[in-house]
């Protein structure tokens, strides 16, 4: 837990008691702050001694959980009242940066790949013996991380929601991997979404930016015009055994650049990056049956991410569908020829079938069990059965992790039956 002595006796509100909000409330309570919390769930409020609502007037600080809409798609009533009270809602990341001034901060964001890059940087720092902690949008919430001694490195995955709440980002190293359409209902459109992602670059940050999409390229040119040094992420990153595909070479290049910005020699960084085993639900090889490989990429919740997965294999039995963020599958156009067949599930199966008409063979099967059984039955040696849904999971599962776990369990069942 991060110590917050500056908030002893302060009047602090915490809006939302999810993962980050609970960690913030616990750290503030331990610091001796006068705590005011709000969550729609009364039982959570009672844990922190607040059964009723609180008013932002009189607060010294308001910590806002990123999962709660703040300004978009419409201003939250409490955000309006906080503005009238002169209290700007912030995220827990701000309190972490304030509390650990002697440490260094690496911020990683992007529509796709940010968890892998964050974890890869943390893996390398661990191999190099550098005191560090990894969290934020990935793993522990910011204020639930351990307190590091001066010189330690916090590696933080940052969502667009968190960045929108950061008043003055103060990262030593800032990584923006890519920008593609995502969460647009929360940001009010693509331009605002891109602008919130771009907030990661404070005045002092070493800027590392992907070069694979026009939004990032435009931002890189703007920063360079302002006199900022920018490291562009190309396609020439190292190939790591557990990270297949061109997109993962870009991810490895980004991690390598971030380690270099921390003063680590390239050869040492490359050696430290080896042995990284990847993250669950992200191009995770689950098993192989009769020459057919089964890959869980449940985290591929948008078409761009699914396109990266399809591009990584020559012949694919593709399981896709769910709660679609868009019915437009044009991002997959270059890779349709690699699809032996698509097995569609969830709420988006009908529009996805329409989008694939005349481009790839497909079948609407409704649920994951049926899709996996059909793909297993029809797959041939050398092919890959790939779960890369190009859609969120919430129509059938509580999370992409639960969806990936179901796929993994299904494959393990098939493997037991093949013995």
Q: What do these coordinates show?
A:
By secondary structure, this protein is an alpha/beta fold. It folds into three domains: 5-89, NAD(P)-binding Rossmann-like Domain (Rossmann fold); 93-273, Mur-like, catalytic domain (UDP-N-acetylmuramoyl-L-alanine:D-glutamate ligase, 3-Layer(aba) Sandwich); 284-418, Alpha-Beta Complex (Protein-Tyrosine Phosphatase, Chain A), CATH 3.90.190.20. It is 36% helix and 18% strand. The chain contains 15 helices and 15 strands. It has helices at residues 19-31, 42-47, 77-84, 92-99, 114-127, 160-164, 184-187, 190-198, 214-225, 246-261, 266-273, 303-310, 349-356, 368-378, 400-418, and strands spanning 11-15, 34-38, 61-64, 104-109, 132-136, 153-157, 173-176, 206-210, 230-233, 284-289, 292-296, 316-320, 339-345, 362-366, 384-387. Strands 5-6-4-7-8-9 form a six-stranded parallel beta sheet, sandwiched between helices. A six-stranded mixed beta sheet has the order 10-11-15-12-13-14, with helices on both faces. The longest helix has 19 residues, at 400-418. The N and C termini lie far apart (47 Å). The model has no long low-confidence stretch (mean pLDDT 94).
Shape: globular
Described by its quaternary structure, the protein is: single chain
CATH architecture descriptor name of the largest domain: 3-Layer(aba) Sandwich
Q: Which sequence of strands runs across the widest sheet? A: 5-6-4-7-8-9
**What level of helicity do the residues show?**
25-40%
Question: Approximately how much beta-strand content do the residues carry?
Answer: 15-25%
Distance between the termini: 47 Å
- What's the rounded overall pLDDT mean? 94
Overall radius of gyration: 22 Å
CATH superfamily of the largest domain: Mur-like, catalytic domain
Q: Count the strands? A: 15
Indicate the CATH topology of the largest domain: UDP-N-acetylmuramoyl-L-alanine:D-glutamate ligase
Given helix and strand content, the structural type is: alpha/beta
CATH classification, class level of the largest domain:
Alpha Beta
- The helix count comes to 15
Report the sheet with the most strands, covering strand number, pairing sense and barrel closure: 6 strands, parallel
Q: Estimate nothing, just give the exact number of structural domains.
A: 3
Which residues form runs of ≥5 with pLDDT under 50? none
């Amino acid at each position: 837990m991060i110590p917050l002595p500056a908030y002893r006796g302060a009047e602090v509100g915490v809006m939302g008691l999810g993962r980050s909000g609970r960690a913030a409330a616990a750290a503030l309570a331990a610091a001796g702050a006068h705590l005011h919390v709000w969550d729609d769930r009364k039982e959570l409020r009672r844990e922190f001694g607040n059964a009723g609502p609180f008013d932002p007037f009189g607060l010294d600080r308001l910590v806002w959980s990123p999962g709660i809409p703040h300004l978009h798609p419409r201003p939250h009533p409490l955000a309006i009242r906080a503005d009238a009270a002169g209290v700007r809602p912030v995220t827990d990341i701000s309190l972490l940066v304030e509390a650990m001034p002697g440490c260094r901060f690496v911020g990683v964001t992007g529509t796709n790949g940010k968890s892998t890059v964050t974890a890869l940087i943390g893996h390398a720092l661990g191999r190099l013996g550098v005191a560090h902690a990894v969290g934020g949008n990935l793993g522990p919430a910011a204020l639930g991380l351990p307190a590091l001694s001066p010189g330690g490195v916090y590696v933080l995955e940052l969502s667009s929601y968190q960045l929108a709440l950061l008043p003055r980002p103060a990262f030593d190293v800032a990584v923006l991997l890519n920008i593609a359409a995502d969460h647009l209902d929360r940001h009010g459109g693509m331009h605002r979404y891109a602008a919130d992602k771009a907030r990661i670059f404070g005045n002092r940050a070493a800027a590392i930016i992907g070069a694979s999409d026009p939004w990032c390229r435009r931002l890189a040119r703007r920063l360079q015009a302002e006199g900022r040094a920018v490291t562009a992420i190309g396609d020439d990153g190292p190939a790591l055994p557990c990270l297949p595909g061109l997109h993962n070479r870009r991810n490895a290049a980004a991690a390598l650049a971030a380690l270099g910005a921390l003063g680590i020699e390239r050869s040492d960084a490359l050696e430290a990056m080896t042995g990284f085993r990847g993250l669950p639900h992200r191009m995770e090889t689950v098993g192989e049956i009769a020459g057919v490989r089964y890959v869980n990429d449940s985290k591929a919740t948008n078409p761009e991410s699914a396109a990266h997965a399809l591009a990584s294999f020559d012949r694919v039995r593709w399981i896709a569908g769910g709660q679609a963020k868009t019915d437009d599958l044009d991002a997959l156009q270059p890779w349709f020829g690699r699809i032996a067949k698509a097995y569609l599930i969830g709420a988006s199966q009908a529009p996805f079938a329409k989008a694939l008409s005349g481009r790839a063979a497909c079948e609407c099967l409704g649920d994951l069990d049926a899709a996996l059984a059909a793909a297993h039955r029809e797959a041939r040696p050398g092919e890959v059965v790939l779960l890369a849904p190009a859609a969120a999971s919430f129509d059938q599962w509580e999370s992409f992790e639960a969806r990936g776990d179901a796929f993994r369990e299904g494959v393990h069942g098939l493997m037991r039956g093949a013995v």
